[in-house]
Amino acid sequence: MNRAKHLFFMGKGGVGKSTSAALFSTFLAKKGFRVVVVSLDPAHNQADIFERPLSDKPMEVAPNLLAIEIDQDTWIRAYLKDVYHQINRTYSYLTAFNLEKYFGVIKHSPGLEEYALILALEHIQKKYAEWDYLIFDMPPTALSLKFFALPSLSLVWVEHLLSLRQEIIKKRDLITKIKLLTKEFERDKVLNKIEAQRAQYRKLKETFENPEKTRVYLVLNPDKLSHAESLRILNSLKEINVPLYRTVYNKKPVNNACAQIDPVFANIPMLNFPLSDTPLIGMDALQHYLQANQEEMENQLNLC
């Protein structure tokens, strides 16, 4: 059973979601929790923040804290390779049509990034199921929302495929029984695969919609553009039934009466990362900031 909680930090570009994810990861690890911070953002700022060269291979950046940067292209190739083998196994007669030629086009299809990130997520979930927290630094808003919506949208598609395949099987078996009378038939490989995909997407959808497993932190700054995009994120998450767990009000100037958050976020619990006087780059800077805001961070720990 997967016991790890999934914490996703998302928001408009430049609001500080990478720094917020790094701070939260460092704080939880320091408290003794086992934490993996995963960058799903192609920009990969975690390496800059921790001042370490990161990659797909986990690196310990502090006691109890591993950091990983997901190579999107690697997971796209893994996804296409899996599709290729499935088609070869199920429709071996198609090899005569030179499948490689068609995959040269398929690899440029829209939507592959979301599937690649989902594959990477499932890999991380399985490998670190016994850890305490999996913290994800999310890509830009559009890709993040497609990522969360993918299980729900895919289920609609898979359900239609399932119905179509069942209808094909019914007619095929009817014809075959007439020819072979009582012969038993091998379970349909395509049907098996579609049912497996349905189970996979249902599990992901349940994980995303379960506030005990998935906690989405929306990072925003005290400016109109950040609020406007955050509002779109909030509405989009509602449409796909993914709850917003907390807002993270980042870079809030101290004693600035103009820095008011949009009232629409007033009913959502908020974390407040005070503005730092120095860049939060390197483990020493992160630790110094956490030490200076110890009381605030302790209060936040009770929320996660």
Give your account of this protein's structure.
Helix content is 52%, strand content 15%. By secondary structure, the chain is an alpha/beta fold. Helix 1 (17-30) crosses helix 9 (283-292), helix 3 crosses helix 5 (112-127) and helix 5 crosses helix 6. The two termini are 20 Å apart. The relative contact order is 0.17. The mean pLDDT is 85.
Give a topology summary.
Elements (H helix, E strand, L loop, with lengths): L4 E7 L5 H14 L4 E5 L6 H5 L8 E4 L2 E5 L2 H19 L8 H8 L5 H16 L5 E5 L3 H40 L8 H21 L4 E7 L3 H16 L4 E9 L17 E5 L8 H10 L1 H8 L3
Parallel strand pairs: 1-5, 1-6, 2-4, 2-5, 6-7, 7-8
Antiparallel strand pairs: 3-4
Descriptive terms for the model:
304 residues; alpha/beta; eight-stranded mixed β-sheet; 10 helices; 15% strand; elongated
Outline type: elongated
The helical percent reads 40-55%
Major beta sheet summary = 8 strands, mixed
Tally of contiguous helical segments: 10
Q: Determine Rg (CA atoms, Å).
A: 23 Å
Q: Which consecutive residue ranges, at least 5 long each, have pLDDT under 50? A: none
What is the count of β-strands?
8
SSE succession? EHEHEEHHHEHHEHEEHH
The overall average pLDDT, rounded, is 85
What percent strand? 15-25%
Q: Major sheet: order of its strands?
A: 3-4-2-5-1-6-7-8
Give the class from helix and strand content and strand pairing: alpha/beta
- Amino- and carboxy-terminal Cα gap: 20 Å
